Amino acid sequence: MPENVETSETADAGARPAARPGGRNARVRSQILAATTELVARNGVAGLRYEEIAELAGVNKNSVYRNWPDRTELVSDALLQYAEDSAPLHDTGNLRRDLVNFLIVFSERLSSSIDRAILQATIAAPGNTDLDKAVRAAYDRRLAIARRRFDSAVEKGEIPPVDSYFVTELLSGPVYLYINRRRHPFTREVAEKIVDIVLAGIHATTP
Amino acid sequence: MPENVETSETADAGARPAARPGGRNARVRSQILAATTELVARNGVAGLRYEEIAELAGVNKNSVYRNWPDRTELVSDALLQYAEDSAPLHDTGNLRRDLVNFLIVFSERLSSSIDRAILQATIAAPGNTDLDKAVRAAYDRRLAIARRRFDSAVEKGEIPPVDSYFVTELLSGPVYLYINRRRHPFTREVAEKIVDIVLAGIHATTP
User: I need a surface site. Which of B31, B38, B47, B144 has the fewest CB within 10 A?
Assistant: First the structure.
């Protein structure tokens, strides 16, 4: 769990496979997806072997084949599960605090070795458009969580109506640059400044 | 020249080598750097050969060796020249218009094949820290242009004092995500919304 996140609820995000509901098969699927993500991060997509996935997940090789006859679909699902678990955004009723916490978790995931490795693996294989789609779908899912929080804030009248896709990019874009440039540390203070300026700017520019 | 940039001054950016002052040696150096950037984009850094650079630049191989005995320094200088030519930011006296134009040029460079290829080539060689430094230095140079424009706006009282590094990341971060996600087009309207919200937010949050 990230140190500087205030709400204790985000601790759930760490307990990935066991926390998933749905009995044994759901648990097996979740273990396979986690193992796949780890192996993609470690060896890239080209080197991905079902035997290794099964071994790392502690399941029978047939379970992998039966659930995912298609390898691209397996990678896509694995990245989606990873993305969903990556950036929790809880609705505590305080939009500013929720967004600041979201940006901090987002920044810590972006700087994790698994995220960097996935980025490298996927950029190294730009010809594989299915994988490209999988990565983008995973990012979309991650940001969809932020979008839902925005939509609910608009509904409750906390902020004026906004294009939630646009605002999500506006908030998370600078985080992306801070992490990837490594010129200045991304701190809670920076996250708060981003959220404050963007929220104030939205209020000020809405007629 | 990007279609939707209003000021005609940015046309200068296209006429790279010839526009550089300083006589024959400066012109030769500039041609070598442009050829280096193109070859890095085409083949990556590992495959870079001085013979090919000389041939593409139309200069003698000895000119390349004499000016850049060190290959990493050559790549670094090439990326820096590319970055400087990439994102012109003219001071027309209208901060909003200048920033909108800057974001549009920035977005077009980010989506160019040469930028994408450089990104791939450098991410594929993460162990090469000199190259990594060169890439980051090039980005810094590109953004330093925006920072200077901000500092001058602060001096003239157009905006309250700001951390220009922070604001530059705040403005260019969303552009980066729009281009790399390819989910929605990056238009002049989007650029204007980013600049308007950020400028209004800075005014509103400054005591």
Answer: B47
| pLDDT tens profile A151-170 | 889 998 889 998 888 998 99
Q: Which of B178, B193, B204 sits opposite A204 (nearest CB)?
A: B204
Residues in B touching A203 (Cβ below 8 Å):
204
Distance CA B117, CA B123 (A): 10
- Structural contact between residues A2 and A105, judged by C-beta atoms closer than 8 angstroms: yes
| Nearest residue of chain A to residue B169 (CA atoms) | A174
In this complex, do B139 and A181 lie within 8 Å of one another by their Cβ atoms? yes
Nearest CA in chain B to A192: B205
Q: For B90-205, give the CATH class.
A: mainly alpha
CATH architecture of A88-205: Orthogonal Bundle (1.10)
Those residues with Cβ within 8 angstroms of residue A22's Cβ, 6 or more apart along the chain or in another chain: none
- Residues in A closer than 8 angstroms to B199, CB to CB, are 201
| pLDDT reported for residue B97 | 93
Per-window interface: A 173-192 vs B, CB < 8 A:
173-178, 181-184, 190
> What is the rounded CA–CA span in Å between residue A44 and residue A65?
19
Most confident by average pLDDT, A131-135, A181-185, B77-81, B102-106: B102-106
Partner-chain residue, chosen from B124, B140, B173, that has the shortest CB–CB distance to A183: B140
pLDDT band at B52 (very low <50, low <70, confident <90, very high): very high
Is the pLDDT higher at A181 or at A203?
A: A203
Q: Lowest-pLDDT range, A111-125, B5-19, B84-98?
A: B5-19
Distance CA B92, CA B19 (A): 21
CATH assignment of B8-82?
A: 1.10.357.10
Measure CB to CB from residue B126 to each of A120, A181, A205 and give the nearest one: A120
Number of A to B CB contacts under 8 A, please give it: 103
Which pLDDT does position B47 carry in this prediction? 77
Same fold, B8-82 and B90-205: yes
How far from A90 is each of A105, A112, B85, CA to CA, in Å? 12, 21, 44
Given an 8 Å threshold on Cβ–Cβ distance, is B181 in contact with A119? no
Domain parsing of chain B, residue ranges: 8-82, 90-205
**Beta-carbon neighbour count of residue A190 at 10 Å?**
22
ipTM of this complex: 0.72
